[in-house]
Design brief:
The chain is an alpha+beta fold. The protein contains 28 helices and 28 strands. The protein has an 8-stranded mixed β-barrel with strand order 18-19-21-22-23-24-25-26, surrounded by 4 helices. Strands 2-1-5-4-3 form a 5-stranded antiparallel sheet, sandwiched between helices. A 5-stranded antiparallel sheet has the order 7-6-10-9-8. About 30% of the residues are buried.
Length: about 800
Amino acid sequence: MLKLQLRARIFLFVLPFIVLPLLMFGSLSYLYIRENTMRILEHQLDLSLRSGRDELNKDFSSARANLELFVSNDIIRRYLNLPDTVRYKVMQPALLGLFADYRKAFPSYVDIALLLPDGSIDSRDAEDPKAPPKYHDFIERVAAQRPSYAEQLFFVEEGGYIEYVQAQRIDHRNEAVEYLGTTDLTKGYLLVVMRIEDVMQMLRKKLNNPEGYVVVSDPQGASYFLNDKELKLWGPLVKQIITSGIGRLRGFTLGDQDYLGGFYRVNEQLFITGIVTEEVVDRMVTPILIALGWFVVIVVIVAFLLIYSKLNKLLLEPINRLQRQIAAFRSGAEIAWVFDGNDELSRLSAEFEEMASTQRGQIERVKGLSNLDPLTGLPNRTAFSGILEKAVSYTRRQDQALAVLFIDIDHFKRVNETYGSKVGDELFRQVADRISASLRLSDEVARQVMTEFGDMDRVLVRTGGDEFTVLLRDIRKAHQVSLVASRILAAFDHPFTLDEHSVSMSVSIGIALYPVDGQTPELLLKSADLAMYEAKQAGGACFRFFTHALNTSAEKRLQLERDIQDGLIVKEFTVHLQPRVNLRTGVATEFEAMARWNHPRLGILLPEQFISVAEESGHLIELGKQLLEAVCSAIKSLQQSVGNDVTVSFNLSPHHLRMNEVLSEISNCLERYGLPGETLELEITEDLLKAENKDALILLNRLRERGVSVALDDFGSGDSSLSALRRAPIDTLKVSPNFMQELYVDKESPVVLKAICDLARSLELKVVVQGVESRAQVEQALTVGADQAQGHYLSEAVPVDDVRVDYRIKIFDLPTGERGGVRV
């Protein structure tokens, strides 16, 4: 048995020394091979791009040289010096013959024309002479600017070729004209168009590696001569390569894919870009990697067998020798420690482990006595110094924040003087228990964080006398600390029972935040102590931040939390209604309910002023129930004033949707007011669909069975998923107001808006355009095919008693009356 255990230990001991070097060797080899493969691919692609660039530059240079020779032809100059009436009869046939000869000599020249200084065509020979020239803008620019030379590329994607258009100015040297001071000696321009056929085919032939890809583009990264599939695949890559200025070939990342790419500039208008994908590199490297893996496995097995056999022979013999020596040592006998090949190493290890364990236990007990408060069992000031120092260091590395709460028991001296020190000690223990209980593990910030800094796993420390300290790490917002401090204060609302005496106590708390109030443990403790004395001066039983601004903010937030709690009791929360106007009739029978708080001091508050506070203070569920009641009441009022054919939508929070009883709450509320389910519509957000919350989707389906419709709010504001939209149980699509806001800024907004409407129509969904602020936006909503419009131009959210339904004057510019035979 001992030999079997030893062999297992030898195996575990030897294996890392064999495997790790070989794995390191394999990893380095793989990286070297991959890097070398990348260099080879880079070299091949670089040669291909340069060859393609040189080929195109050769064509362009040749065309430029030919044009210069062509312009110097004596026929052209004599032709331009003749009067108009003479040259057309005498010289034009010879000129056109010259053009035709040039086109025969250079088949790639598809158009040669002589332009007058004003840009009009005097003479021309082309493939299709009757067809007007395609380069009208180029000719106008030449006539307006009159450069000595001009050129431009035209990409003809249908034919897969490039047309290189050049224009050379023809000047007339006349001494008499110059003597008179005339500087404009331009007689005209010779325009030559050269066609470069099959550009992509030529570039791909230059590519040595068939796995790579070459793309032609302009300086802005727009790709040419690609089909739809290739454009979708390579277009974004080419644009990133060119616009980011990558230049020469190198690696880069787009999304989660790695690529090798770069570009060469042929001229100001033409770039050629080369790309090799990560899949190509992996396909070339994978066979080598597999072979290397098998080589490593075989070497590991052979080396392990050889080394294991040798160590097994060398270590088994010493086991018994060492075992006997240890036994003699424990009995008190003096022995000579001898180590040779026959010692029992496993027993020696066990004995030493036992001795080490005993020693460790003794050290831990001594350490615990020196770092713990004997009265409460909490860490003491000595332990807290090390804990706080490590916490500050860790927080600084992680770029986080922490808080120190300095707690002092108010008027503790009276307890000692009145009841004696024994009762005072008992009070300390109960105070420690109450504070510990208020630091729940479920709290967002009051988690026990010290396990990673040592064996002290408490956040509460007794630092001496009647003082305690709490350390909170990973603070995201100051009000989170306020919640913890408020909970500690609330723990002292009930009196303490001390030796049959009932004693009411309170505490004062000072709060310091890292790094705002101090970046060292000493400064943090000093700041917290000063803040605690400020709380004492305020009468005790409260907390104070070291920073006055945080005190003010914390007080306002706590007051708002108390007001929300009181408002729920007296039912201060209600809803206002904003109409969703039918764009076909101009009449509103559907409305959105928006939460309002009729605050007794602050007046009407909007949702953004209290919803987040209600959520963080745990009142959101109760608030949702009260608003649901208000919605049903508003529907009933609308039915009495407008008619039964009305629907009101409202937002239900994701927290509410996760409750099992939400279906019964909605059903019961509808039944109490005698309302059918069709009068209610539930609005959800795209986040709920992306989260794929199956329970929420089941709930929505059950609500639809009850008659309640479902609307998807703010569609298009996030990363919309069309597949999720298709699967979701929704009836109405409410388009994000951003499309209306960007209507005159982004020319693509109307196109996207119409696409959304077409998509919704194909899915048989009703479309509501939100954020309508003007008549022009109403017309745009009609143009794209929306069903309903909602926004401030039509109506603000108003109390239910102020709701109106006729908006035809704002939709059709008609007074209340008839339209299309319908009277409202």
